[in-house]
Amino acid sequence: MDLDVFVSAHRAEWDRLDALLRRRRRLTGAEADELVALYQRTATHLSVIQSSAPDPQLTGRLSQLVARARSAVTGTRRASWRDVTRFLAHGFPAAVYRSRHWWVPTALVSTAVAILLGWWIGTHPEVQSSLTTPSELRELTRPGGQYETYYSSHPATSFAAQVWTNNAQAAAMCLVLGIFLGLPVLWILLQNMVNVGAGIGLMTSAGRLDTFLGLILPHGLLELTAVFVAAGTGLRLGWTVIDPGPRSRRTALAEEGRAALGMAIGLALVLFVSGAIEGFVTPSGLPTWARIAIGVAAELAFLAYVFVLGGRAARAGDTGDVSDSERSATLPTAA
Question: Exposed, middle or buried by CB within 10 Å (0-12, 13-18, 19+), for 150?
């Protein structure tokens, strides 16, 4: 493509678009229509130049022109409570639902690893002795020991806040660090499963597995599900780096990254609920069956929220990403 000829053929359109954008008075209906048409044509021109005859100076000028025109066409808007409602009712559950093929296997494999670790530790005294001394083991597992008093070691409000902060940070790390091919996510998952497996194994060896499950299930079901969702989404983001599919790698990472950011906010709310259960329900004087029932109810409510509400939103086309009007303009690709 002869760049000089191309510029000569379209310079008048670019100058006209620039003039319309500089108008201080309100545009007439005809001028507004003209601005939209010139914006679309200039965006196509920019794509052609970038793919066929890249020129840094001309590309920079047209990129600024297209950005200004897009801002004028789409306008600016402020977030409102309607956006929050839409996010909670559609965006967040749809994003979690779309990631189910990643986080459901992650949950199943991680749970299996924790159970196997628990069996291995519980049936091998030499492994237990490598983890802690016999006196410390007795202190951990005895009635009224550290495993039981941990949940009532601080005032319920401060304990719930501390738990929520730690868990939200772990979930955010899974989502953010997933871009490094998912490797940090696997390490975070392994650490969590080792902690759970050690608790299962040590309490099993003391014949008190029922007590341990009665303490961990009320809050752990929802808490671990949130961690698995974050980990699965982080792994998906890491795989997007390797295989972006039909999208360009930049576009794919932008779309998946924005959805992951929204999920971090949504999962923080989910973990707030699990933290409240851990702070107020787990150490309470309620019967074990009642505490577990509360945990199961919270877990089932979240799964229904994702698979019913999120599934409906996903089938309607919601991806958890921002709306089309809020995305950067996607330029057509020249053949």
Answer: middle
Angstrom CA distances, 137 to 132, 191, 196, 309, stand at: 6, 20, 16, 45
Q: Tell me: the pLDDT tens digits for 20-34?
A: 888 877 788 788 888
Size (the chain), residues? 335
53: left (phi over 0), alpha (psi -120 to 50) or beta: beta
pLDDT tens-digit map of 158-194: 777 778 888 888 888 888 888 888 899 999 999 999 9
DSSP 119-186: HHHHH-HHHHHHHS-HHHHHHHHSTTSHHHHGGGSS-HHHHHHHHHHHHHHHHHHHHHHTTTTTHHHH
Comparing CA positions, the residue from 71, 11, 3 lying closest to residue 41 is 11
To the nearest 10 degrees (0 to 180), the angle between helices 183-205 and 156-177 is: 140
Output 159 or 67, whichever has higher pLDDT.
Answer: 67
Query: Residue 182 in contact with residue 235, Cβ under 8 Å?
Result: yes
CA pair distance 315, 286, nearest whole angstrom: 41
Distance CA 181, CA 187 (A): 12
Token pair recorded at residue 334: 């020249």
Cα separation, 78 vs 147, in Å, equals 48
What distance in Å separates the CA atoms of residue 223 and residue 204, rounded to the nearest whole number? Answer: 22
- pTM > 0.90: no
Residue 296 burial (C-beta neighbours within 10 Å; 0-12, 13-18, 19+): middle
pLDDT on residue 257: 80
Give the span between the Cα atoms of 160 and 119, in whole angstroms.
30
